[in-house]
Amino acid sequence: MLTRVLAAVHDADPRVVVGRVPSDLPVPVHVTREEPPGGGPVAAAAAGLALVPASIAYTALLAADLPFLTGEAIDVLRLTMESAPMEGAVYRDTDGRLQILCGVWRTAALRAAIERLAAKRGGLHGAPVRELIAELRVAEVSWRRPGPPPWFDCDTDDDLRTAEEWAR
């Protein structure tokens, strides 16, 4: 699944993965870890963002377990954000939940939000993602294409079986 996520951002430079990667990963990536490990997605986002140069305008913040993510889905988010005065764009699912780990952000705004949250909490370990984006202007995007949504993630064996069924 990580390979599919990285393929969806094939033109990104740099591509950063926070966590372990297989030794046979077919694409070049920068690898890092949050300190201490297991700090959650906000701490992981901060660790990854530390490897993104300040000159990079946009950063895709993505879970590594999105088997149906495509370059088209990323383009929709980026174009939505570019066309409105927003600091990020994420998908909103049919239940109205924001899929925060399937989003594109203005790098400077995301970096500033991480710094504010770290100062407010005294660190990022265990910080909720929703608290990270609470002060950011976020475009909410609906996915109206047929088939599985790009934000579908595989957290459980049942999720993996569902993804395999959809892929067939």
Work out the count of structural domains. 1
Rg calculated over all Cα atoms: 15 Å
Topology-level CATH name: Spore Coat Polysaccharide Biosynthesis Protein SpsA, Chain A
Largest pleated sheet = 4 strands, mixed
- Average pLDDT, rounded to a whole number, is 94
Order of helices and strands: HEEHEHEEHHEH
Coarse structural class: alpha/beta
CATH architecture: Alpha-Beta Complex
Q: Describe the global form.
A: globular
Number of strands: 6
What is the strand arrangement across the widest sheet? Answer: 3-5-4-6
Report the end-to-end length measured between terminal Cα atoms: 16 Å
CATH C-level name? Alpha Beta
Give a short overview.
Helices cover 35% and strands 17% of the residues. With 168 residues, the chain is α/β, with parallel strands linked by helices.
Describe what you observe in this structure.
This protein is an alpha/beta fold. It has one domain: Spore Coat Polysaccharide Biosynthesis Protein SpsA, Chain A (Alpha-Beta Complex). Helices cover 35% and strands 17% of the residues. It has helices spanning 2-8, 41-49, 71-82, 107-121, 129-133, 157-167, and strands spanning 16-18, 30-32, 58-62, 88-92, 98-106, 138-141. The strands form two sheets. A four-stranded mixed sheet has the order 3-5-4-6, with helices on both faces. Strands 1-2 form a two-stranded parallel ribbon. The protein is globular and about 45 Å long. The two termini are 16 Å apart.
